[in-house]
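I have been asked to look over a protein record a colleague put together. What it holds is a sequence and that sequence's fold in token form. Please read both lines and tell me whether the tokens look consistent with the sequence. I do not need a full report, just your reasoning and any doubts. This is what I was given:
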Amino acid sequence: MRRTAVAIAAGAMAVSLAACGSAAESGDKSEASDSAAKKGDAIKVGLLLPENQTARYEKFDKPLIEKKVKELTNNKAEVVYANAKQDASLQNQQVDTMVTNKVDVLILDAVDAKAIAGSVKKAKEAGIPVVAYDRLAEGPIDAYTSFDNVTVGKTQGEALLEALGDKAKKGQIVMMNGSSTDPNAAQFKEGAHAALDGKVKVGREYDTKEWKPENANANMEGAISALGKDKIVGVYSANDGMAGGIITALKAAGIKVPVTGQDAELAGVQRIVTGEQFMSVYKPYAPEAEAAAEMAVALAQGKSLDSVAKDTVDSPTTKGVPSVLVPVVSLTQENINDTVIKDGVYTVEEICTGKYKAACDKLGLK
């Protein structure tokens, strides 16, 4: 199994909370921190996730964060949840509502990193710290956890080149990037280009509105029409949902080429089993969710992040944000057993239903 390393200090995934912080960290927040420390475990955590099109948020992120928050607070904390359903205006309203309802901390996965900045500022002015989750929101955020997104894109690009082999010099690829409103998408694209540029020709490239599979499908149909089906040797897809739409368009045109993905969604894993999709990026959600919960609880209780966040990142508006960056894995047919099955993300029975059973048996999934 090939693993892609990310800048992360040893032990960042198994973190504990420390009650003492540096003077530089507390600064003018000391009064708020003293107040927060008095709350103990009976805190209110606002959790705002961006959409429900991608399976991961409702199936993994939400329950994992809720579970960890409860563990860290002796089951006394309350988690208030809202999903923006890919609507940036709605998410701004949801943040405002949580500020009005006086949550003690926010875990925020932004629909639109720029558009949310004003609401983040409102939370800050109300003394409510904000943990940016999975996407680096703009505004005065206090902490951030995600994956090394440039490395994710590089992992995808390298996998596509591996799948293409000599064909990389004999045709063109299509690049299907994510939404232009998602800062992660720009970083995935950066990493993918770092791997692909100069090694394969990009015939067409798209930023896919709202990450929607149907938009990726329409873009792919346009690329096939523009380039010709005999000229396309592979497709860079930034995630599994879009890969599904892309593969539908490829099938309709009678094209079978390697397609990348991300998120290890069940449908994506099943396409990998059958060979319709070459790879996905497996991002272990548990360490990301647990890091967000640990940072949120620490901030709500007025504690230091020193023992949790071993890295820092810069956003366009905030420098030196305490961060936890989690490693990722290139998921292919060869390591399904050692990743999503071993980690309990899916069972063999969930993956190997009906039409997938024969392919699963051939791969020795168990």
In short: The two ends are 17 Å apart (CA to CA). Confidence is low (pLDDT under 50) at residues 1-36. The chain is about 40% helix and 15% strand. The first helix runs from residue 23 to 26.
